[in-house]
Amino acid sequence: MKLPVALALVIGLAGVLISYLYLGPLAGLGLFVPATFIGAASFFAAGGDLAGLKKSLAANVWGIVCGTVTLILAGLTTNTFLVAVVIGGMTAVFILGALVPLLDFVPGSVFGFATTAAFGLLTGASGTDFSLPTGPFTVMLLSFVVGGLGLGYACSLLVGKLVGAGAESTAAAT
After folding, report:
1. Most buried of 33, 54, 62, 112 (most Cβ within 10 A)?
2. What backbone torsions phi and psi does residue 66 show, to the nearest 5 degrees?
3. What are the transmembrane regions (predicted)?
4. To 5 degrees, how large is the angle CA 96–CA 105–CA 147?
5. Rounded to an integer, what distance in angstroms lies between the CA atom of residue 34 and that of residue 14?
6. In sequence order, what are the residues at sequence separation of 6 or more whose Cβ sits closer than 8 angstroms to the Cβ of residue 173?
7. What is the pLDDT of residues 121-169, one digit of tens each?
8. Long-range contacts, stretch 94-102, CB < 8 angstroms, 24+ apart
9. Is residue 170 scored above 90 in pLDDT?
């Protein structure tokens, strides 16, 4: 089977399953479909293999942590300019995280930061809320882990079997 066909089938069907679960039986958890897809995209962008999974998830979590801190600090003021300064300052912090080798996949940090901050700012959720289904940190963390491990890594293994290649070969072609 050709790689684009295998990718379309496997990730498309996994997307159906994840969307059904998130919007149906698991709706009470508040997991966020876009964050799961972004987690999978992050996995593939980081190399699409086991090393890429580690790098992607570490960067995603770092971004989620920084996004959560941003929400906590932004919640301390109603001044729009100060909120903007907090966002800019925490953006600098998550980028500086790239000085740590495990966190040097900056796009992964951007993905985690942006989705967490957006989720909190657009829903009015507090950065200090760590519950499901409303806590930005917890919702994004679980959604990204499912994206990286399930929609990304597991699907890449299945795609590799369908095209007769290992995960590394599949990842290199994506």
Report:
1. 112
2. -65, -40
3. 5-23, 29-50, 57-76, 82-103, 110-127, 139-159
4. 125
5. 13
6. 3, 165
7. 999 999 999 999 999 999 999 999 999 999 999 999 999 999 987 555 5
8. 94/62, 94/63, 94/66, 97/59, 97/62, 97/66, 102/54, 102/55, 102/58
9. no
Distance CA 57, CA 47 (A): 12
Is 170 within 8 Å of 3 (Cβ atoms)? yes
Cα separation, 69 vs 87, in Å, equals: 10
According to DSSP, residue 100 is labeled S
Lookup: tokens for 99: 């000085």
Evaluate whether 130 touches 124 at the Cβ level (below 8 Å): no
Q: How far apart are CA 162 and CA 114, in angstroms?
A: 34
Mean pLDDT of the chain: 94
Please tell me the distance from the alpha carbon of residue 77 to that of residue 11, in angstroms, as a whole number. Answer: 42
List of residues 6+ apart from 13 with CB closer than 8 A: none
4: left (phi over 0), alpha (psi -120 to 50) or beta: alpha
Q: Are 112 and 60 in contact (CB under 8 A)?
A: yes
Q: Which single residue is written with the structure tokens 């001044």?
A: 79
> What string of H, E and C letters represents the secondary structure of 43-79?
HHHCCCCHHHHHHHHHHHHHHHHHHHHHHHHHCCCCC
